[in-house]
Design a protein that fits this description.
2 copies of one chain form a homodimer.
Chain A lengths: L28 H16 L9 H8 L3 H5 L5 H12 L11 H21 L1 H10 L3 H28 L9 H18 L9 H11 L6
Helix pairs in contact in A: 1-2, 4-7, 5-6, 5-7, 5-8, 5-9, 7-8, 8-9
Amino acid sequence: MTRENGGAGATDPAEDCAGSARRGRPRSEAAEQAIFDAAIGLLEGGTPLTEVSIEKIARTAGVGKATIYRRWPGKEELFVDLLRSVEPPDPVLPGDSVRGDLVVLMESIRRRGLAKRNSALLHNVFSQMQAYPKLWDTYHQVVIEPRRLLGLDLVRRGMALGEIRDDLDVELVNDLFTGPLLLRTVIRPGATLEPDLAERVVDAVLEGLRPRD
Amino acid sequence: MTRENGGAGATDPAEDCAGSARRGRPRSEAAEQAIFDAAIGLLEGGTPLTEVSIEKIARTAGVGKATIYRRWPGKEELFVDLLRSVEPPDPVLPGDSVRGDLVVLMESIRRRGLAKRNSALLHNVFSQMQAYPKLWDTYHQVVIEPRRLLGLDLVRRGMALGEIRDDLDVELVNDLFTGPLLLRTVIRPGATLEPDLAERVVDAVLEGLRPRD
């Protein structure tokens, strides 16, 4: 939970960090939900992402534009928060073994892929996102990059503990694990996402594909 | 080369397979190029992909709509051919070793990624393609799926020859090689595409990431 101050009488935390992203710290959850519902309604009604303006959202939600701008600096940040409210949350790594943490991290990618397939909203927004560079950049910066750094840290830990070869580039090693999962969840819409996919990818990459003696 | 009959006096091969895709068998290369140039001009002029109609292309190229429909059943097929004319051609596998062929196949993905970064046209069309399901489906069916089958055949050959473990799913093994390449070329626009990337991915996946003794 990032909503630390939801009460009506509480000071709006957004006031304390004017100019920053202010993500997830609305004065009132009810207002935020009404704003999200309005944006979702517009998208479901067929309005292209690029034409869903703050003005249209405010009008549909029955709030003033200032109410929206108090929460988000622009519509890209609003959409990114909307996506995060629908997507599964980021995983917490148990920290027992590097292999175990890798499986948890890859499993979170698989689950997000399933969520995207099952949510018409997520599917709609992601399919339009590549043609909307500013939203893609914001989503990348706020959501994807922190997840990627989590993976890089894990690979470094594995190298330090002797669970992963340390003669390869950290970024490359991370991509060997995440690439197959992202290929099936992001690029190939019809690919199977079996329950044990994360585990099978992690073990195959760790053990290698040369025949065993 | 799929253009077997380009001469003005030759029988139009398209007439021989009415109703089929007729890809790459125009009566005249000059007319085809004029049609491609018209489509490119419209896209470069800022017309969204979904609004580039056969009618607009015909008018811009100075040809009749029938001239276009004689070559392609619809605009999706036209766009797919246009993309193929700009993208690097599919690789020919030397067939010496499975490892060598895997490197050639992965290198072809890297080269297509570089081409996409260096071509404003490819970048433009691919960024709009996800929001245009019919074009995405056609491109997938005509271009991506045959390439994927090439990879699956190669993995099966590796298993039969004892160069690749045969206790894993063929599709999974193929995704372990292609996933990291597609992650960097399709999903993460800023990723590095070093000249030896294909080789490093193939060898790391074959050898595995467990520390060597």
